Amino acid sequence: MNLRTASAVLLLAVSLLGCNIPTLPSQVITSEMQTAAAQTVQAVLTPVSSPAALATSTAAGTEGAPPLYTVPDATNCRAGPGTGFAKITTIAAGTSVPIVASYSGGTYFVVNPPDVSEDCWVAAALGSVSGNVNAVPEVTPAATSASGAPARPGSLFYNYSCSGGSVTTNLTWGDAADNENGYRVYRFGTVVADLPADSGAFVDTVTVTPGTQLQYAVEAYNDAGASPQRTAVFSCQ
């Protein structure tokens, strides 16, 4: 083999050896890179709902719900905002009723109980609220009597007798009102008598521990509310 032939053989061997080196097509590399890049961009652009965002969304849904008032215990619903107004009904414990209006910055609500045909008033502090209460109107109660609540009773007088822990008290007062439905007598803040209009006296007998201070109060009332009270406080001597 001469030098020219040997050179040709060597060149052919090198060419064949180069053909056996593995390579990746440029098209495959480009496709894989494009797919990975697209997935990365999609991950960056996709928003993740944070806990705060989910909470805001939940709250917005609650605010759009109808406002309800729920009572844990049996609660009186009255003709106006306060215990001086006549009772319309008693809302049963655990009941939820629609709120139709609020009063005095939400201290009282006008609600619609299921068992009566008219709306009535409840103290906000006695129950809990759900839904969008800000959507209900603010209202002012109207007196249910043209002349309003009755006048305060005249001066309250008392005399009593004590015997073996039993106290009998004779209460008298002036009938100063001319539009009352009646008079209520309280002992220790609890009603012990509901008397008819034009009443002016009541006798009460109670057994107490010696030295106990007795407390009485009298008020006139009608459908519009109750008068200021007259009070008497004493103990057996």
- Number of helices in the DSSP assignment: 3
- Please give the number of β-strands: 15
Average pLDDT value?
Answer: 77
> What's the quaternary structure here?
single chain
What gap, in angstroms, lies between the N and C termini?
151 Å
Low-pLDDT parts are 6-10, 21-61
Instruction: List the secondary-structure elements in sequence, H or E.
Output: HHHEEEEEEEEEEEEEEE
> Cα-atom Rg, whole angstroms?
43 Å
The helix-and-strand class reads: alpha+beta
Percent strand: 35-45%
Strand order within the widest beta sheet: 6-5-4-1-7
Care to describe what's here?
Helix content is 21%, strand content 35%. The strands form four sheets. Strands 6-5-4-1-7 form a five-stranded antiparallel beta sheet, with no helix packed on it. Strands 10, 11, 13, 14 and 15 form a five-stranded antiparallel beta sheet that branches. Strands 8-9-12 form a three-stranded antiparallel beta sheet, with no helix packed on it. With 237 residues, the protein is an alpha+beta fold. Strand 10 and strand 11 form a beta hairpin. It is elongated, with a radius of gyration of 43 Å. The protein has helices spanning 3-19, 26-45, 51-63; strands at residues 68-70, 75-78, 87-91, 96-103, 108-111, 120-123, 128-130, 157-163, 166-172, 182-187, 190-196, 201-207, 213-222, 225-226, 230-235. The model is unreliable at 6-10 and 21-61 (pLDDT under 50). It is built from three helices and 15 strands.
